Amino acid sequence: MEPLTLHTPLTSLPGVGPAREKALDKLGLRTVADLLAYFPRDYEDRTLRESIAACPLEEPVCFSALVAEPFRTSYVRRGMELTKGRIVDGTGQVEVTFFNQSYVRSALTPGETYCFYGKLTGTGRRRQMINPVFEREGEGRVTGGIVPVYPLTAGITAKRLTSWQRLAAQCVPQIQETLPEDLRRTYRLAPAAFSYRAIHFPQSWEDLAQARRRLMFEELFCLNLGLTLIRGRRGEQTAVPFLRQDLDAFLSGLPFTLTDAQLRSAREAAADLKQPVPMNRLLQGDVGSGKTVVAAACAYLAWDNGCQTALMAPTELLAQQHVKTLSDLLGHTGMRVSLLTGSMTAAQKRACREKLAAGEIDLIVGTHALLSEPVAFRRLALVITDEQHRFGVDQRAALSAKSGGEERPHVLVMSATPIPRTLALMIYGDLDLSVIDQLPPGRTPVDTMLIGGDKRQRLYGFVRKQVGLGRQVYLVCPAVDQEDPAGMKAAEQYGRQLQREVFPDLRVAIVHGKLKAREKQQVMEDFAAGRIDVLVSTTVIEVGVDVPNASLMIVEDADRFGLSQLHQLRGRVGRGKHQSYCVLISDNRNEQTRKRLKTLCATTDGFAIAEEDLKLRGPGDFFGARQHGLPQLKLASLEGDMRLLHEAQDAARAVLAQDPDLQNHAPLRQRVEQLFRENGDIFN
Ligand code: ADP
Ligand code: MG
Questions:
Q1: Which of ligand 1's atoms lies nearest the C-alpha of 262?
Q2: Which of 258, 264, 289 to mutate to test the pocket of ligand 1 (most atoms within 8 A of CB)?
Q3: Cβ of residue 574 lying under 6 Å from some atom of ligand 1
Q4: What distance in angstroms lies between residue 401's CA and the mean position of ligand 2's atoms?
Q5: Helices (H), 346-406
Q6: What is the Cβ-side half-sphere exposure of residue 497, based on CA atoms within 13 angstroms?
């Protein structure tokens, strides 16, 4: 066999034929380098214990012992053989049983010592063990150390993958060190070669911790460098500066006074818009915090500076709502606001496009179709998107390209997903951040309670009472149209059952993602117009829908949802002047789960809830999701070391201050390029 290098294809490894090649490819593994970058998801502690007596019961342990007698096989019934024997050390003895593995009879020689790995059970001084892993003492292949556990796929066994990793390990010295030595010293980071070896085959838990820390740091560091470089590249682009900055005429015509947080956010955006470089700002605010009016302020500035604005919503329904709201907010200024969506007739669309090209529309509202349709603007200078979590970095890039010409539009993205600030800076690293951390005055917080399924009858009574008062009710189920084996409520069945058996006299409707877009929209329109009393749905109603008359949100199997998601759902009520309620139903007795749900009952502050989610579940959910359009992280997504994150940020800043293009850090530059490969060329 040729000597292995990092570039050697895995097909050169023993046992890799076309089938396994395909399976490996599914894991993203093509070369030895890929393999080395494929980290274990867990480890088994197979370090040797002192003695049998020192081994705890009921957990996997590794120890060495002498085979005290020949192993014997007995046939229990057809197809079932038991092979039994006794092993001992100076402190105790264990009766070992193997099922259907009679070959062990010859593999375990009486009078010789072996290492065993398995779970000990028993009472008193009797110890038993079933199907342990074993090998001759000192062999050290499957026992006596910390053994990696890799994520697998069909066709690839743990044993094979580990043996390939052992082969690949000889190439570790070829891995380039990306982190400069002074940086490693400052942040006490282990060298690359050590870390790659130790993450696969650690000599000790201490070594493993060192290796993980270094590799996690590297990942966060490179992510930061990449995002900062993207941000920097923006500085070279030009945009129309909005030199006229006076908002008085807009503000004085509003039906309400802005909150301090809204004013602050509007000012932050205005300051960006004054610059001849494109704004790229994320406006974060809890549901109902009043983001729309801040967006309107920006659109007003665009208009006052002779430019057009495009606002994009994730659904047609939301686009329609935005047109209505924005027309109300901007009507007094003389701005012309209009809608452009896929479901309009061809003639309507054409008319709309002509007006846009002629500059007779100042603010156009639509769905993402705005991007794909052949729309020409007279002078588009600001693009606003609602519900950012559905947009990735690439979509933002596509948007910017839309304006054509030399000048890029300013971009404002609005998100109602409260993400703790530290994480937001990381996830939306190429965006500047404004936060509306205050609700408009006069809101009555939604009264939230957690109940068991046994209280459902009383709840039905409460539903009746709300509907009797003229209110409307949302009921959210975790599944669409079939109770799954675990018995989750399904919107389709439950909705029909409610109509038939519980509320025959009320208007019950069902909506979920499997309906056609048109049907879905029809139901939502009917609900918004008050033609439906009880809307049974899945989480499709999570985003942005505004029906102020709805006063009760019921969530079935609430434990199936993340806290932040439940908070989003709750945000659908409490939008009008009526006292509103959120009822979480769960029969889950798990203490941790109940604690999670109770958090929601105790607070309505989205950021506090996100922090709690972060504490309970780690940043995986925030980081892991591909929807952010960020590179996938391998290690950093698994655990939440905020300090490391800050250190990586500081380090990135320091390196870029000295070497803005990473010209003098070739290996590092290569790593960053690799990490962002899918996001296009970030150095140019
Ligand atoms: P979201 O941030 O969820 O998009 P909206 O912009 O839809 O919030 O605002 C929610 C509701 O609050 C709207 O009905 C809006 O008119 C109202 N609102 C916004 N700002 C204020 C304010 N400063 N004072 C009173 N009501 C406000
Ligand atoms: Mg909104």
A1: 23
A2: 289
A3: no
A4: 25
A5: 346-358, 369-372, 393-402
A6: 10
Nearest CA to ligand 1 atom 9: 290
Ligand 1 atom nearest to 294, measured from its CA: 6
Which residue type, as a one-letter code, is found at position 133?
A: V
Measured CA to CA in angstroms, residue 669 lies from 393, 656, 681 at distances of 20, 11, 12
The CA 620 to ligand 2 mean position distance, Å, reads 26
Concatenating the DSSP letter of every residue in 292-349 gives HHHHHHHHHHHHHTT-EEEEE-SSHHHHHHHHHHHHHHHGGGT--EEEE-TTS-HHHH
Q: What is the largest CA-CA distance in the chain?
A: 97
Nearest to 571 by CA among 276, 291, 383: 291
All residues at 6 or more sequence positions from 156 whose CB lies less than 8 Å from its CB, including other chains: 20, 23, 24, 27
259 CB under 6 A from ligand 1?
A: yes
Over the stretch 610-643, which tens digit does the pLDDT of each residue have? Answer: 777 766 665 555 544 433 445 556 665 444 566 7
The residue nearest atom 22 of ligand 1, judged by CA position, is 440
Q: Are 436 and 262 in contact (CB under 8 A)?
A: yes
Residues in CB range of 211: below 8 A, 6 or more apart: 190, 194, 195, 196, 197, 198, 199, 202
Report the separation in Å between the CA atom of 314 and the middle of ligand 2, taken as the mean of its atom positions.
Answer: 11
Taking only the tens place, the pLDDT of each residue in 309-332 is 999 887 787 888 899 999 999 999
Q: Where residue 565 falls among pLDDT bands split at 50, 70, 90?
A: confident
548 CA: nearest ligand 1 atom? 14
Written in H, E and C, the secondary structure of 455-520 is: HHHHHHHHHHHHHHCCCEEEEECCECCCCCCCCCCEHHHHHHHHHHHHCCCCCEEEECCCCCHHHH
The finding on whether 291 has its CB within 6 A of some atom of ligand 1 is yes
Residue 256 CB less than 6 A away from ligand 1? yes
CA distance 586 to 565: 15
